[in-house]
Design a protein that fits this description.
By secondary structure, the protein is an alpha+beta fold. Helix content is about 45%, strand content about 15%.
Length: about 220
């Protein structure tokens, strides 16, 4: 979740892509695992998707502040993308990079999981997720290849075609990235329990907090 993208800062802006007929269900991954248990590594993949959603939601919660102009009787929260925070998900948990108090992180992770599993599914989507960059690169490459094959092999036509392909990809990639996150690379963490949070170093020696999780049926 380290790559910037041009998205609205509030996750509720993604409601356009929330199709009710494939809304998350608490037992969906458990059932899938039982039906397809013969597939090697399936549980790790399902776990990674749920961890990915929890990572995103935790960053959103950590970026949440009280609205100064809200009523004391009806306080509201304002969420913004805190670009000083980033994360990396694994099948065992996720690394959180950035300056954050560990007690605040514990609260944020617990609250993020509760809110995700209680219906705030848009918290699973984040504008700086690497999924968006991957979708953008794949789309750009695909359109560029199509232009190369379809247009005459003359420099001017090819340059114009590549420009159109790049522009089209930049317009489509954000929305397609959101869809990819929602339905492919993340899943609501119904099966995760939070085990521990430690301050450690990742495989590259970079300091981070690691939120360790465990799969539960």
């Amino acid at each position: 979740m380290n790559n910037p993208a041009s998205f609205p800062n509030h996750p509720e802006s993604f409601d356009f892509f929330n199709f009710d007929w494939i809304s998350p269900k608490p037992d969906q991954d458990t059932d899938l695992l039982k039906q397809l248990s013969f597939i090697p590594g399936l549980q790790e993949i399902l776990t990674l998707r749920q961890v990915h959603a929890l990572e995103h939601a935790t960053v959103w919660v950590l970026g949440e502040t009280k609205n100064t102009y809200s009523s004391p009787r009806h306080p509201t929260n304002v969420q913004f993308d805190n670009e000083s925070l980033s994360g990396l998900s694994t099948e065992q948990g996720f690394f959180l990079y950035g300056d954050v108090n560990i007690s605040h992180l514990r609260r944020a992770v617990t609250l993020a999981k509760h809110r995700l599993t209680s219906g705030e599914w848009d918290l699973a989507i984040h504008p700086r997720c690497g999924t968006n960059l991957s979708v953008s690169m794949l789309l750009t490459a695909s359109l560029a290849m199509g232009v190369y094959v379809m247009l005459p092999f003359r420099p001017i036509e090819q340059l114009i075609g590549l420009g159109i392909a790049a522009t089209t990809a930049s317009e489509l990639a954000p929305d397609l990235g959101v869809i990819a996150q929602r339905y492919i690379t993340t899943s609501i963490p119904f099966n995760l329990s939070i085990e521990n949070i430690i301050f450690t170093r990742d495989a590259w020696g970079k300091e981070a907090h690691f939120v360790k999780v465990k799969w539960q049926d």
